[in-house]
Every structure is written in C-alpha cells, then in structure tokens.
Specification:
This protein is mainly α. The protein has one domain. Helices cover 71% and strands 0% of the residues. Helix 1 crosses helix 2, helix 1 runs parallel beside helix 3 and helix 2 crosses helix 3. The protein is flat, with a radius of gyration of 17 Å. The two termini are 16 Å apart. The model has no long low-confidence stretch (mean pLDDT 88).
Length: 91
C-alpha cells in the first residue's frame, strides 16, 4: 500500500501526466481509506481549475515577469530540487 507521501506525489503528478494503470489503482485504493489524501486531491483539483480559469482572463497578460525574474525563479527551483534530492536519496 502506498504511503500518504507517495500518494500526494502521484496525485500532483496526475495534473501533468497520465498515471500508469498500476499507479491509478494504487492511488484509488489508498484514497478509499484515507480521508486526508482525498481532501488533498480535491484541494489540488480546485487550485488547478482556478489557475486555469485565471489564465484565461483577458487581464491575465498584465501579470508578466521579466526575464531576470524568470531566471531567478528557475535558479531557486533548481536549488530546491537539488537540496531535496540530497536529503531524500531513497525517493
């Protein structure tokens, strides 16, 4: 059985890719028994839907980032990913 941590990763990944049949079945089995993970899945779906709606608004283009800001954010995300990989070698 998957842990809550594993399920939260898969639920998040499901927003961007199709899960394999085994992953989907494992997640569903866990969600049948775990109220907190069901709640997390619903919250994530709500936030994803809200983000998609916001991106379609006509004034959404007013919120653009400079190339410098984008580069800074990319650097921070890469640093965070490296730090996480170092602290969680088993994942």
């Amino acid at each position: 059985m998957l842990s809550c941590k594993e399920v939260s990763k898969l639920v998040s990944q499901a927003q961007d890719r199709s899960l394999t049949l085994g992953e989907r079945l494992s997640v569903r089995m866990h969600l049948l028994m775990c109220r907190m993970c069901r709640r997390y899945q619903k919250q994530l779906a709500f936030l994803t839907q809200a983000g998609r709606r916001f991106s379609h608004l006509s004034h959404a283009g007013a919120f653009t980032l400079t190339e410098k800001a984008k580069a800074r954010m990319k650097q921070k995300l890469e640093e965070a990913a490296r730090e996480q990989a170092e602290t969680e070698p088993g994942d």
